[in-house]
Amino acid sequence: MARHVVLLRGINIGSRNRVSMPKLREALEEAGFTDVQTYLQSGNVVLESRAKPETVRRKVEQLIEEQFGLEIAVVVRTKAELAAVAKRNPHARVAKDPKRYQVTFLAKKLPARTVKELEQAAAPDEHVVVAGREVYAWHPAGVARSKLWSKLAGQGLGVTATSRNWTTVEALLELASDG
What is the rounded average pLDDT for all residues in the chain? Predict the structure, then answer.
């Protein structure tokens, strides 16, 4: 059985797209996933399945729509893929506050034009590295007024994407490694 990290986009933010983590765990177990665990309330799930990541993604999206009546985009990484993300860590020397260091997980690689737009949107003190299906972004002044963050958090990337801060990335890797 492979360990998968399932990242749900845009749930439990304010009053919209509310999903109970205990009910989500129960629904995923009923759907045949095993060792289902959640982290925080923001759509982070670690589970086991024999299915390929793309199949897990489709199945979870369908389950959320059927069980909760919500159309939620999902991005899936294997435990090994998440470990590679953490190991790559291109901002390790500058990103000293893990809550201001974001990794955006993409469903597929970005076009070169979009990568250039992200690089141009970064403020002088921000750092952005696009590596495969991840975007690493260091926001030392926070994300509130960041043009880079606005691009990463919005729908304009042209691919399904969801972001997690570095603290969450490390916690998910630890949770995925415990299985």
Answer: 94
